[in-house]
UniProtKB/TrEMBL annotation:
The lineage of its organism: Bacteria, Bacillati, Actinomycetota, Actinomycetes, Micrococcales. The keyword S-adenosyl-L-methionine applies. SUPFAM superfamilies: S-adenosyl-L-methionine-dependent methyltransferases. It comes from Promicromonospora citrea. Keywords: Methyltransferase, S-adenosyl-L-methionine, Transferase. The keyword Nucleus does not apply. Residues 9-28 are annotated as: Disordered. GO terms for biological process: methylation. This is Putative O-methyltransferase. Residues 11-22 have a biased composition (Polar residues). Pfam families: Methyltransf_3. GO terms for molecular function: O-methyltransferase activity; S-adenosylmethionine-dependent methyltransferase activity.
Length: 262
């Protein structure tokens, strides 16, 4: 596991060193006027002063991802995900999701993108026993694997509502302001639609989490202007500009964008 993370991260690190080195004189992205507020003093100064060396960054990221180790049930769920060829949240993201579920006392949670159930297991472990996770995926085979994972973890059937279908069809049927936490982890091109729905579903104080929000460093690279990168980058920008939420971007996993509903 660590070797895989290290391997993935060494690719991530080499690309970030090509494109993402802060420069005090020019700012990190001199031509990225739209994000300029992030990279102008004093924010840029604080960021570049605090930035560890490249090697330190790799070690810190790997350490963070492995900080809360996964047990056998989670590792087996992760293996099923790999066999199905569907991604799963990295362990650092899983641990954050469990913290969020516990901290918000999340009794009603929505997950967009069940996959093989890795993120769902982390969420369920943070939720109270009378909470229910509603999880949506168009791939029934993925949901079948998730059911195996839930059974292996002793999750009572009433704690999950597993809905097959396109999230774009299912989400509009869910009740306004009735949910404590919504995780979006599915088709990134549909993130704008899913995030809109999530903001409708969340109660005040509820938390939105968007996985894959850095798209393997592409979002942070202003030279990347392909459709997928632009859509995901715009989701972050829209949340920063949205008075209904307080946003934050965590570098955990592949980027976890959070927003608390006011
Ligand atoms: C990243 S996986 C979900 C992982 C899960 N949340 C976890 O961490 O264990 C994405 C899921 O979204 C569904 N999906 C639907 N449309 C998709 C698309 N265009 N691209 C990627 N995934 C898509 C897939 O069936 C897949 O199960």
């Amino acid at each position: 596991m660590r070797l895989r993370l290290l391997r993935e991260y060494s690719q991530k690190s080499s690309s970030s060193q090509r494109t993402c080195r802060p420069s005090r004189s020019h700012g990190l992205y001199p031509d990225a006027a739209r994000d300029a507020h992030i990279w102008t003093s004093p924010a840029e100064e604080a960021i570049s002063t605090a930035e560890p060396s490249g090697h330190g960054r790799v070690a810190a990221w790997v350490y963070s991802e492995a900080f809360v180790p996964e047990d056998e049930v989670l590792l087996r769920a992760r293996e099923r995900a790999a066999e199905l060829g569907t991604p799963a949240v990295l362990p650092g993201v899983g641990a954050v999701l469990r913290v969020l579920a516990a901290a918000t006392g999340a009794r009603a949670v929505v997950e967009v993108g069940t996959g093989a159930g890795v993120a769902a297991l982390w969420l369920l472990r943070g939720m109270p026993l009378d909470g229910q996770l509603t999880t949506i995926d168009r791939e029934v085979e993925h949901q079948r694997a998730a059911r195996v994972a839930f059974a292996e973890d002793g999750v009572a059937p009433q704690r999950t509502r597993i809905i097959p279908g396109r999230p774009g069809d299912v989400l509009p049927r869910l009740t306004d302001a009735a949910y404590d936490l919504v995780l979006v982890a599915s088709d990134p091109l549909s993130y704008p639609e899913y995030v809109d729905e999530a903001l409708r579903l969340l109660r005040p104080g509820g938390v939105l989490a968007v996985d894959g929000a850095l798209l393997r460093d592409r979002v942070a690279d202003p030279a990347r202007r392909d459709e997928l990168t632009t859509v995901v980058r715009e989701v972050g920008r829209a949340l920063r500009a949205d008075d209904r939420v307080l946003p934050a971007m965590l570098p955990s996993g592949d980027g976890l964008l959070l927003a608390v509903r006011r």
